[in-house]
Amino acid sequence: MHASAILPADAAADWTIPQDWRAYTPLEHATWDALFARQAAMLPGRAAPEFLNGLDVLRLSKAGIPDFAELSERLTKATGWSVVAVPGLVPDEVFFDHLANRRFVAGRFIRRPDQLDYLQEPDVFHDVFGHVPMLADPVFADYMQAYGEGGLRAARHGAIDRLARLYWYTVEFGLIRSGAGLRIYGAGIVSSSAESRFALDSASPNRLGYDLKRVMRTRYRIDDYQQTYFVIDSFDALLRQTLQTDFAPLYAELAGQPDIDVETVLPSDIVFTLGDQSHAHPQTGSDQ
Ligand code: PHE
Ligand code: FE
Predict the structure, then answer these.
(1) How far is CA 239 from CA 117, 217, 232, in A?
(2) What's the pTM?
(3) pLDDT score of 285
(4) Which atom of ligand 1 is nearest to the CA of 154?
């Protein structure tokens, strides 16, 4: 996810670079606006209220690509987080260290107009529209900081791949229960027009109750919509369990257990929806 890369000459030791907001072209701002309009219309009734509230609090509806300095000012007031620009993928430990210090690292480039629907590497729309609204929620803000601290610890246990699955199935592709049905909160879903429909409406994927150990054993797809989504009960429960659990013995325990495939449903799973996997096709990319 945040694989090895080479520190670019213009980056600081912590890999940050200036956003250089003034350098964005009118076309780039227009690309943001088009993506924003589409998702803003799609998400009421689909996204978790905490996400929608974050859009509001941060005034992300303002036209154009957000200026990270201005955005950080609002975000810092809400939860003490800020947003910093990086050139692209950064090494795992750099990423974790930023999170542990309540800094969210975001790409500053925006996709081309012919890439509105899909792009594999995270751009400023995915990073800022997808991730930053949840950081305005105090509970999720704490979860992300704890995740960064947990990442630094996982690195010492050689267990980054395990912990990355937790990030994938919560921060990137998580669903949450609400009184009115399932809601999306994962950044990879809310920033994608097609997946924000697929994740809730399609008969194809499984939607299973979130289980920490199970999630850390489950492989994931990086080349298509997920074949399984995991549903949390509440952000509070997610935060509490991850904070209170010592992961070191879990890493040791899980080391002896086989991975679970992306489409597998176990007898022990809580099944919200059993997917027919009609969309699924052979994988060209996964986490291993
Ligand atoms: N409690 C975890 C550990 O012992 C750290 C963690 C917290 C991981 C929150 C993920 C999310 O390593
Ligand atoms: Fe992301």
Answers:
(1) 32, 19, 11
(2) 0.95
(3) 64
(4) 12
